[in-house]
Specification:
The protein is an alpha/beta fold and about 375 residues long. The protein is built from 16 helices and 14 strands. The longest helix is centred in the last third of the chain and has 20 residues. The structure holds iron/sulfur cluster. InterPro entries: NadA, NadA_sf.
């Protein structure tokens, strides 16, 4: 840490295999904004480094707008986690710089083992990943051998390696419905809100790991309802990692990509949005004539988590993207996954992709059905 960053404490829930849950503390070191001159210098150096290192920048919708714009300006991508990994796999660049959180770097490496995958901050975590450690999750799975293990994309490579299926986007409902038809009982991890949503929709027998996203878990239904009354014409867009009481108030429920599509397609001028406020950049960029309002997080139990912005996503900035590029080839912030785990972690992803082909739906996240089905990666 230096004077360009400030360190903040972040509390998250860590469930255990024995149905208990503890509150743990992690941290994030959030960079300060560069001044205008430094910002321009950083951008031009990064552009030169991307060319020199045969690298491409892929950014998540929740990272700083500078990194979103730079990814697009240099031939990279701004998207959700699965699309970031898939784009990286299919792009000719041999080095991928993944601006997001660590599991996104791991997903890119699982799909592109031959490429160098760099992350600006190795300590950029995720409460879903932190709250589902592989060892305890394995124990949980071992205690329920009769259940098919289905995990969401927001998990470590080691947790994916213990899974039978990885699901994301519109395919999650179809996979769970398919497993239910086969008489399978499911063990779901790690997000309890998303899992409950799938359970309500499919009626499947699902045993849940009780993880939660620290950002989406903070949205408050009572305050959202009050805001809706203040803006009666507004449509409410909700990410399904939010509590059920918030999802219930939505006009459209879906992943980041689905929220973007809903904002473009729905006939409304004003939207209330319940997801990380990093999304506001792309929403406003794509819809300059529409108004976007952040859904309320600050209920009576408001804490420092209630800012609607992921502190780990906020760790990415121009300075650490430049640094990781300058040090490419030295091993600095390079994602490494044990080959046995990587190969095993790829199986549940391949199973999902094969199933998608069998049932005739694209393996690419389908934003139309993601809206109606309310699913998708963060
Ligand atoms: S917003 Fe939530 S799900 Fe996304 S990386 Fe942050 S903690 Fe994880």
């Amino acid at each position: 840490m230096n004077n360009l960053t400030h360190r903040i404490a972040v509390e998250y829930e860590k469930p255990s295999a024995f149905n208990s849950c503890s509150t743990e503390q992690a941290w994030a070191s959030v960079p300060s904004e560069p001044n205008a001159v430094e910002r321009e210098e950083l951008i031009s150096k990064i552009k030169a480094q991307l060319i020199e290192k045969n690298a491409v920048l892929v950014s998540h919708y929740y990272v700083h707008p500078d990194l979103q714009d730079l990814a697009e300006a240099t031939g990279g991508l701004v998207s959700d986690s699965l699309e970031m990994a898939r784009f990286g796999r299919d792009h000719p660049a041999q080095t991928l710089v993944v601006a997001g959180v660590r599991f996104m770097g791991e997903s890119a490496k699982i799909l592109s083992p031959e490429k160098r995958v760099l992350v600006p901050e190795m300590d950029a975590n995720c409460s879903l990943d932190l709250g589902c450690p592989a060892e305890e999750f394995t124990q949980f799975c071992d205690e329920h051998p009769d259940r098919t293990v289905v995990v969401y994309a927001n998990t470590s490579a080691a947790v994916k390696a213990r899974a039978d299926w990885m699901v994301t986007s519109s395919i999650a409902l179809k996979v769970v419905a398919h497993l239910k038809e086969q008489g399978k009982k499911i063990l779901w991890a790690p997000d309890r809100h998303l899992g409950s949503y799938i359970q309500r929709e499919t009626g499947a027998d699902m045993l849940m790991w009780q993880g939660a996203c620290i950002v989406h878990d903070e949205f408050k239904a009572i305050e959202l309802d009050a805001l809706k009354k203040q803006y009666p014409q507004a449509k409410v867009l909700v990410h399904p990692e939010s509590p059920a009481s918030v999802v219930k108030l939505a006009d459209a429920v879906g992943s980041t990509s689905a929220i973007l599509k809903a904002a473009r397609d729905m006939k409304a001028d004003t939207f209330i949005v319940a997801t990380d406020n990093g999304m506001m950049h792309k929403l406003r960029q794509q819809n300059p004539d529409k108004t976007f309002i952040e859904a309320p997080t600050a209920g009576q139990s408001a804490t420092c988590k209630s800012c609607a912005h992921c502190p780990w996503m906020a760790m990415n900035d121009l300075r650490n993207v430049l640094k990781v590029l300058e040090q490419a080839g030295t091993g600095y912030n390079e994602i490494q996954i044990d080959e046995h785990i990587r190969a095993r972690a790829k199986l549940p992803i391949d199973r999902m992709l094969d199933f998608a082909q069998q049932v005739g739906i694209t393996s690419k996240p389908n934003v139309d059905s993601a809206i109606t089905q309310g699913l998708g990666p963060a």
